[in-house]
Design a protein that fits this description.
The protein is α/β, with parallel strands linked by helices. The chain has helices at about 1-15, 20-25, 45-65, 120-130, 150-165, 175-190, 190-200, 215-230, 255-260, 270-285, 290-300, 305-325, 330-335, 335-345, 350-360, 365, 375-390, 395-400, 405-420, 425-440; strands spanning about 30-35, 35-40, 70-75, 100-105, 140-145, 170-175, 205-210, 235-240, 265. The strands form two sheets. A six-stranded parallel beta sheet has the order 4-6-7-8-5-9, with helices on both faces. The chain has a three-stranded mixed beta sheet with strand order 1-2-3, covered by helices on one side. Helix 8 (about 215-230) links the parallel strand 7 and strand 8 (about 235-240). Helix 1 packs across helix 3 and helix 4 runs parallel beside helix 5 (about 150-165). The N and C termini lie far apart (about 60 Å). Bound molecules: adenosine-5'-diphosphate and magnesium ion (MG).
Length: about 450
């Protein structure tokens, strides 16, 4: 079996290079070669992910060449004494650049592929500054924003650019999730010293999704010391999160405090122009012929986040190419039917109707200026929900309720918010209405 495996490695070496094989594939241990499959054990999940992402195709092909077509299966064996993270050798020949010392970067997440709009301009500018002069200006750089808005893309771009300028730079890029699981593995194997040392030697540490550290006391402790060691030596730290540091629940005060030491930049959802530009860029990257009017149509209707936007485009592109049909608005309507329906489910009518049925009041009364208490509270709830779900302006909401003044609406929203905080029964009621609206 070992002989057969060595022949696979040799064949693979011819494809991806002997160095890569030594670094990534050699730490895998074959445990069985059957008529249908090759089973490999890895010292950690991280290695499996790296190999699956980067070398799986080449590995399958080499297996097929040497042994005939077989599945390649992986499993973790904690007892294997492999490298925690395959460490990039120093002083590697130039031209091979772009590879972090710890973790992996997504090749296409570069600054060149990132569309700048009003929503991400500040985060983008600070990311560029950090990539130009790591450790100098903003340390740490903390980028936060909702899911699918480009945080991971932007911080990958920082990693790429630093490595492009200085291929010898020791860059670590990983998600806080991976940091947690690798630390746990290190603790189990009694190798925490090695773990610490690895991280304290890097020039740049990019930790994606630090909200995953929430509630992980031991990891936070470890990360706290890593942070200090790097910061003292003016090594660049870049962090991302789905919320502002203060709002990450279950994060130790001293870490939160450190996260606020440098610069905090947010990414907001893109406006329609930026969405159109992003679609154009993606279409170009994916080789999809996207007419401007179709781009405008998708951008106008898909506004949740960039990941969905991208998903819609890819799906549409796939349909058009399968049907060998041009990309038209008609096709977009047909293919994106379900997405479009989900995108704009809520209207003022829907909110008012749901509130009325919850509280058994009449729509005409809700929209009227009557002030009796049994209608006043449902009306305030409806206003609050219009603000929350439609993000309409206060005057616009006033207009939806029989032409009330915007100050009345502001008051309603404030009252409901306060009461929801204070009264969990009331909060449950409002949430029930909200669910009814979503499920209608
Ligand atoms: P997050 O990490 O904030 O959840 P990602 O960085 O994973 O979001 O972005 C989701 C997808 O949207 C990725 O494919 C990314 O390339 C794309 N994306 C987000 N923002 C932009 C942008 N401004 N320009 C180009 N692509 C973007
Ligand atoms: Mg992300």
């Amino acid at each position: 079996m070992i002989q057969a495996w060595n022949r696979v490695l040799a064949a693979l070496g011819a494809k991806i290079g002997a160095q890569e094989v030594e670094r990534w594939i050699r730490p895998l241990r074959p445990t069985a070669i059957t008529a249908t499959a090759v089973r490999l054990q890895a010292p950690n999940k991280f290695l499996i992910d790296c190999v699956s992402d980067n070398y799986l195709l080449a590995l399958r092909e080499s297996v097929a060449t040497v042994l005939g077509p077989r599945q390649v299966l992986f499993e973790v064996n904690d007892n294997l004494q492999g490298e925690l993270f395959p460490l990039r050798s120093l002083g590697r020949p130039p031209g091979e650049g772009g590879r972090p010392a710890i973790g992996t970067l997504v090749p296409k997440y570069t600054f060149a592929n990132f569309v700048v709009g009003a929503n991400n301009q500040f985060a983008h500018a600070t990311a560029r500054a950090v990539a130009r002069q790591p450790g100098e200006q903003y340390n740490p750089l903390f980028i936060y924003g909702g899911a699918g808005l480009g945080k991971t893309h932007l911080v990958n771009a920082i990693g790429h650019q630093i490595l492009e300028r200085n291929p010898a730079a020791q860059v670590a890029f990983l998600s806080a999730d991976t940091f947690v699981s690798e630390l746990i593995a290190a603790i189990r194997r009694d190798r925490t010293d090695r773990f610490k040392e690895r991280f304290r030697l890097v020039d740049v540490l990019i930790l994606d999704d630090v909200q995953f550290l929430a509630g992980r006391e031991r990891t936070q402790e470890e990360f706290f010391h890593t942070f200090n060691a790097l910061h003292e030596r003016r090594r660049q730290i870049v962090l991302t999160s789905d919320t502002f540091p203060k709002d990450i629940a279950g994060l130790a005060e001293r870490l939160r405090n450190r996260f606020e030491w440098g610069l905090i930049a947010d990414i907001q959802p893109p406006d329609v122009e930026t969405r159109t530009a992003i679609l154009g860029k993606k279409a170009e990257c994916e080789g999809i012929a996207l007419p401007p009017e179709v781009a405008a149509f998708i951008a106008a209707h898909v506004d949740s986040n960039v990941r969905e936007l991208e998903g819609s485009l890819l799906r549409l592109g796939a349909y058009a190419s399968l049907r060998k049909a041009p990309l038209t608005i008609e096709l977009a309507k047909e293919v994106l039917h379900n997405i479009l329906k989900d995108q704009h489910p809520v209207s003022a009518d829907a909110i008012q109707t749901a509130v009325c049925s919850q509280f058994s009041v009449r729509l005409v009364d809700l929209r009227s200026k009557r002030r009796t208490r049994n209608i006043a509270v449902p009306r305030q709830i409806a206003m609050y929900l219009c603000r929350k779900l439609l993000q309409s302006s206060y005057p616009a909401i006033g207009a939806m309720f029989g032409g009330r003044d915007h100050s009345t609406v502001i008051h309603a929203v404030t009252v409901i918010e306060r009461r929801m905080k204070e009264d969990s029964g009331f909060q449950a009621t409002v949430e029930r209405v909200e669910r009814a609206i979503a499920e209608r």
